[in-house]
Amino acid sequence: MSTISAGLQRLAVRLLLCIAIVSASRWAQADALEFDPRFLHGERGTGTDVSRFQHASAVPEGDPLLDLVINEQWSGRWPVPLRRQGQDVQASPCYSDALLQTLAIDQAQLAASVREQLQQADGCLPLSALGLEASEHLDFSGLRLSLKVAQQAMLYTPRDYLPPEQWDSGTPAAFVDYRLNLFSQHNRSDDQRWSQTFLGLRSGVNAGAWYWRHEGTLQVGDGIERGYQPVRTYVQRDVVPWRAQLTLGEAYSRGEVFDSIAYVGLGLGSDERMLPASQRGFAPTVSGIAYSTALLTIRQRGVVLHESTVPAGPFEINDLYANGFSDDLQVTLREADGNERTFIVPYQAAPLALRPGASRFDFSLGRWRDGLGATAAEHVQGSWQQGLDNRLSLHGGVLGADGYQSAALGATLNSPLGAVALTVLQSRAALGEPDQTSGQALRLNWRQVMASSMTDLNASLTSSDYGYLGFNDFARTQHNPSVALLELPRSRLRASLALNQGLGEQGGRVQLQATRTQRWGQAGSDLSYSVGYFHHHGVMGYGITASREQYASTGHRNQVGLTLSMPLGDTRRSSLVSTLSSDGRGQAVSNTRLNTTAGEHSQWGYGLGLTTRHAPNDDTAGLDANLLYRGPVAEVSGSLAQHSDYRQASLGVRGALVGHAAGLTGAQSLGESFAIVHAPGAARARLKQAPQVQLDARGYGVLPHLTPYSVNTVELDPKGTSQDVELQISSQRVVPRAGAASLLYYPTRSGRSALIDARREDGSALPFGAQVLDERGEELGMVGQGSRLHVRGINEQGRLQVRWGEGLEQHCTLFYQLPDSKQKARAPIVLTATCGAAGNDRLQAWL
Known about the structure:
By secondary structure, this protein is mainly beta.
């Protein structure tokens, strides 16, 4: 019984020691913990020196880069002074004037004596000495400092503000993004064969804050006269003080006030993405007066968008996120006495609407160009947009060229009857003496959303008189003077209407679209309209559509269609889609297709289809198939179609090559910003944000898409990597600039790993918790339960030292030999060894 009792006692003590070790790492400010080592082996056993567990894990002095999280909002990665305070055995955060400014702390609320200390050279104070209502938590192993600070102690900043100092310009890099498509068709009726090859290229070079880009296309095939066609070449960079992008080369103007212009020259325009997400787009400012400390709740369509506590007096909420739901906001104030007040703030966002106080601008200077590279009139244009209040925004601009002037002025009004944007444009053009023309154009947009009836109505109207000439039309006449004004395909009237009407959960929805276009010098008008009804029955969805297109020059065409779709299986990776359409002239087409995705990360997708066509005196049928593979360095697709009157085949490849300091890395097709990921030795690790991407043999991979000026989290999934590689960190955050190639380094620890069942020379177990050191004296771990050592980063052969105290009799040495590296398995290697006296003679004999 005594043996059993002693065993239970040792097991309990070991469990308590493990709990204490974990707790010690969390109690950074706690008093030293004391352990009685005799509990590990009884009164007569050899105890383990646990003095290293007396304190929490050591935090050294320095200025490391830490992730700052303020009131649960990530605020970037900044250098934080870590200093020992008084008799503390380890360093803790020390707050300097610069760090407090970074944290947006209102220093006016600090005591005068505190501010004086902070203004001194190298002055910094612990959080407790600042006199703020705040708390901190330092996770040094995760390089993270979390703060909770009372709102009244902070300066106002948008809730998701990211300082420009945190924007990443990326690493020097070059890339080529390509899209290749091969197409071949054989018409059996006339034995005609036709093939075409298309290659689209987008290349770039990043150097510091400057980004060079080039786009072009290459077409080769039957009947194609032009080969490689440059699309545009330009360089760009941020202009941070103005929250704008500077572009030099071939570019496009914004096209919000004036029509968009393709030009060669200089462009400077606002980039709203540089603003915090809560300041982008249009959302009204909610203001009012609280009679007491009140709970403020803002709802839209019953969904809570914002909730906070406001003090008595005036309040203002100006950082609501813009969304696509143009519907009024319901604001509720619950006062301290329990009374509630509710009022409505109109929210009908129209084009060119801005938040109160927000502004946008666009400026361009250069020569007009067409799609084939020809250039004509030089121009200069500038436009400005300004938000005045919740209801009214203004916009205007001027555009000038030799022989051409234009001006625009307009307003956007948000009202209970809908959101209305009105722009008036005036132009004057000299087309050669004595031909001069001038005129006006009117552009009107209106949107109304009625949540109660589930109605979303959108209408637009553009009208111009005969004398009005847009700059693009003017430039065409300058490029080709023989073209008369009447011959230009200028629009006289363009009207459109779109209706989306919900009929409830059981009723489905109806969509209606209609457009009408009239041109000067053209008899009649072009009309197109369509109506559709969409609903579902159980898991099966269905839609019925009808459309009509009527052109003044070619007549009309009708189309009626029915679509059925149904998922197959519980995973919904497969679906069956069937369509039937008819043009009203005796021709009907039906198609039934099975679509499936497969693979652990849906790398594979394929589809099989059956198509039949019925026409007067001609019935055909055929099969088609398509295959898609999303690989780590490219996306490959192919299709085959076999019909009674023709045969088709195609092959497509999309991907990119990225050049950086370490060489070339293949990638999927790239977005505007992307990340180069490097984890040495972690081959086959995947990116959680793009599971198809695996790191190559050198540990490099490319995450093809990052969102500019926003926080992007990039995580590595180590599944599939070697057991001999350990990720030191697996997640990082980055805020890239538009066009940046961010380099993210994930440190790893590499080396063979093994599980060693070690015993002392007399067969007894090694002391639990004893240190395990390598030949350089670096700690690899400690002795675990059952006298087992789990070690990583060791050589093919060598020695390990086990130490449980400072005395000569409190350490021993074991020698190991790993199996041939070619025999490495993914499961840990298990060895047995004897830990004996560490004599030099024995070591020399072993070597």
